Amino acid sequence: SGSAANSNSITGVRIVVAGDRGTGKSSLILAIAAESFPTNVPSVLPPTKLPDDMFPDRVPVTIIDTSSSLENKDELVDELKRADAVVLTYACDQTSTLYRLTTFWLPELRRLEVKVPVIVVGCKSDLADFKQVIGLEMVVPIMKQFREEIDTCIECSAYKRLRISEVFNYAQKAAIYPIAPLFNLEARTLKPRCMRALKRIFFLCDHDKDGALNDAELCGLQVKCFNDPLLPSQVIGIKGVVQQTLPEGVNENGITLAGYLFLHTVFFEQGSPETTWTILRKHGYGNDIRLRDDHLLPPIIRTTHQSVELTCEAVEFLKGIFTLFDNDGDGALNEDELDDLFSTAPERHDNFFYRHFAHL
């Protein structure tokens, strides 16, 4: 794992706070922005900007308050569609506001196709402690029903200033490192596009092309992505985690592709999507898990009388890739081997090779 500071091109996070009237949306926002509990709270606040030094990832946050009235529905919809994360509030002392999450708010987000992380926040927890109305155990069924949408659930109190910063820390982290694009929580497996990208990164890091990451290759990946070398004891620990659950994930040469992919499922199981995201971004992937244009298409400036040729290092790399995928060792790539070779291409389609090189 490593630091979450590698958010690369993300320059800001837009968090939209929504929920029923009277659930404490504006008080929640004022509690993070002001030093004391507000006494005169306006019905809807203007956009509130928080400085980047308030967050571990050092990415500035803009919080958008919303109105629950019908006459402002179009504005609410517009804000939800522009959100990087949604904080969905209910009042801990009003059971009806919790039920409204399942009868209106969460289905509405699905209908609008708002596919960003949702943080369910129980406001006014100080009142619930007194009245014993709603506990987090009542929220668990909702989280199971809307597993793909809800990132986490938390209770807080603006009045007592309890867990206010955690609400927006969770929301910011969920926006920068969303789980849904990479990992299927229901099946507990990596999604296909993520798996293809990680497979490509594995081959790039496997410098000796023996089908496994040895200690040096593993440390090289760690340094490239997190600028922090692994200690020998950490390497042993990583291999032990893999081997204990997936024996074929480690062989005499190091961690195999299966073991490497298994490690990433462990990161998600442990609630550390930032590790996988950092590795993807350091290898040129954007938030849509596609190779960024600046990475995929580096500028090549040449005159009409100049030609472009591969370096010796590039030729050797391509030879290694060819040998790695020539499973039968016959010096040629058959259709299955060629398909396997291009299986890491995120936009892979049938006849990928022929479609791109037919003009040669």
UniProtKB/TrEMBL annotation:
How does this protein sit in the membrane? Single-pass type IV membrane protein
Pfam families annotated for this entry? EF_assoc_2, Ras
Q: Which InterPro entries match?
A: EF-hand-dom_pair (IPR011992), EF_Hand_1_Ca_BS (IPR018247), EF_hand_assoc_2 (IPR013567), EF_hand_dom (IPR002048), Miro-EF-hand_domain (IPR052266), MIRO_dom (IPR020860), P-loop_NTPase (IPR027417), Small_GTPase (IPR001806)
Q: Which domain of life is it from?
A: Eukaryota
Locate the EF-hand domain: which residues? 313-348
Report the subcellular localization: Mitochondrion outer membrane
Miro domain residues are 10-177
Q: Name one GO molecular function term.
A: calcium ion binding
- Which terms are listed as keywords in the entry? Calcium, GTP-binding, Hydrolase, Membrane, Metal-binding, Mitochondrion, Mitochondrion outer membrane, Nucleotide-binding, Repeat, Transmembrane, Transmembrane helix
Q: Looking at the keywords, is tRNA processing present?
A: no
Coiled coil residues, start to end? none
GO CC, any one term = mitochondrial outer membrane
Would you identify the family this protein belongs to, as annotated? Belongs to the mitochondrial Rho GTPase family.
Q: What is this protein called?
A: Mitochondrial Rho GTPase
